[in-house]
Amino acid sequence: MPIILLNHGGFYDGLLAFLRACQANKCVGAAELEGVVVAATPAAALRHLARVYGLQYSGDGGDGDGGGGGDGGLHRASSLMGE
Hints:
The chain is of the alpha+beta class and 83 residues long. It has helices at residues 13-24, 30-33, 42-53, 77-80; strands spanning 3-6, 36-39, 74-76. It has one domain. A three-stranded mixed β-sheet has the order 1-2-3. It is globular and about 40 Å long. It starts with a strand and ends with a helix.
């Protein structure tokens, strides 16, 4: 089951900073965070869910993201830990 953080306007930046600190202190590893996905837009979150569940997604969600292919605005939380 996917875990998606919709980080609209940086809402989860504090949580992501906490997770970076946890990894730096060796309390959490990248493997534990691999299932957590951070989406910058609702459309990116919906595209990810559609991909996970094998569904079609063709809208832009009204957020101007365009709804096209690719992972614009989407990344794994584990990829943030090196920042």
